[in-house]
Amino acid sequence: MLTVHFQRVQERALERRWAILAVLCFGLLVIVLDNSILNVALPTIQKNLDATSGDLQWIVDSYTLVFAGLLLTAGALGDRFGRRGALQIGFVLFGIGSVLAALSSTSGMLIGTRAFMGIGGALIMPATLSIITNVFPPADRAKAIGIWAGTAGLGGALGPLTGGFLVTHFYWGSVFLVNVPIVIIGLLAGVFLIPTSKDPSSPRLDPIGAVLSIVGLALVLYAIIEAPVKGWTSVESLMVGSIGLVVCITFVVWESRSAHPMLDISFFRKPRFTAAAMAITLVFFAMFGSLFLQTQYFQFVLGYSALGTGIRMIPFAAAMMIVAPMSAPIAARLGSKVTVALGLGLVTLGLLSLTQLQVDTPYVNIFWRLMLMSAGMGLTMAPATESVMGSLPLHKAGVGSAVNDTTRQIGGALGVAVIGSVLATTYGDRIGSFLAGLGLPLPQAAVDAATNNIGAVKNGLVPALDQAGAVEVAARVNAVADQAFVSAVHWGVLVAAAATAIGVVMVLVWLPARATTAAVTEQDIEFVDQEIVDRVAARRQL
Description:
Elements: H1 4-15, H2 17-36, H3 42-49, H4 53-81, H5 83-102, H6 107-135, H7 138-169, H8 174-177, H9 179-192, H10 207-230, H11 235-257, H12 271-301, H13 306-312, H14 314-334, H15 336-353, H16 363-390, H17 397-438, H18 444-452, H19 454-467, H20 471-510, H21 517-527, H22 530-541
Helix pairs in contact: 1-22, 2-6, 2-7, 2-9, 4-5, 4-6, 4-10, 4-17, 5-6, 5-9, 6-17, 7-13, 7-14, 7-16, 10-11, 10-17, 12-15, 12-16, 12-17, 12-20, 14-15, 14-16, 15-16, 15-20, 17-18, 17-20, 18-19, 19-20
């Protein structure tokens, strides 16, 4: 029987649930936005902080590495001590890290502050979804998760637009300072709006499991991030990746035998949980990988500015934001299996359509391809996320959310690494062969840079040839680089399309159409007495 105090807390939460959702989506937006907003500021940061290419990579990756490595532990701590507390502490740490990042005077300091921000992000992101799961009754939960998923997609797509605007009109540190007002709003709203919730059994901490999960995930992600640079078959990549996998396997063995596991491994025996988590991994693999290609294609081949590229990505973000909340009634009618498979199918078709891009494709012919792909992602994310959360007991919402978020991070990191490697290999082979066939005494450093990055051709080699009077050669190099890059984009999106096509098959085979009656009943009983829901509904009708 619920206590009178808890009943009152639940009643207030039910009445304010949509305002609470708005606050949580604000918090989620700043976390997801920070993953992509920084990219357009990197050239300015490189100039002002005298950063090397390796420094730039770790300015981006230090955040991702810490963030993803801590997610499972942060979710478990939220379940144990309270999710609102985890959210508030995360906001504080993220805000402090943002201010310190904006004030950084060296690349090393910026790398360190970005890693510190990752700690805050790891506390915030799983708390948002687990609070939503505990605040919303089952009837509204799918719709709320759809809005949450749409916000997550929106943040990733709006990053280049926001970053381009801020860098154009202010200084590079503004991409971090923009987080501060959102953090303040989240903190204040959390005090007055968001109820606390936690696992009522107060499970014991699992420090060994926490250490194993952090070390294992960090090593695996490090290997994935470094593989395109070091080489997938390099000794370092294979060694670090293998050690990471061994640690992750050790974590699984430990958790399966622990009397108080941080992550109940039996969750993965549920087809609904595992198939939905894999669908999320694959759709984020495709999204992050294709956006990595698309933003470079817009800037280096079509010649759009960073801000212009961001503006042209607005339809991608808008389609996802609109479709994700709409996916809840579609899934209610058709079932999660059909809805998620349909979404992944649309993503696959959108990716395949990108193989028709050329060096002079007008934006109007790109627009519908982006919309098709984005609509499919919106149709996939929300039902898959709801399937993950709906297959677990509410008192494990923090860890469940962390698993959901970890699959997103691993999928996104793999997408950029794998598709980025396909891009680099295909482009590098073509432009390298062409430059070698010119027979000109080009500096080896310039040739190496040009084969690794089309930006080095556009901003370095071609201007140098123009200044040397080799205008016709410069034009040929520029044209071949464009064609080589577009060909590499085609191969990259084919890899992404293959991943999402596999996802369609997996979903059709393993993902149940609907939750079992037992799972729904368990969450209904655990959520709240029906009397509370009825009282809140009656007051709204009055």
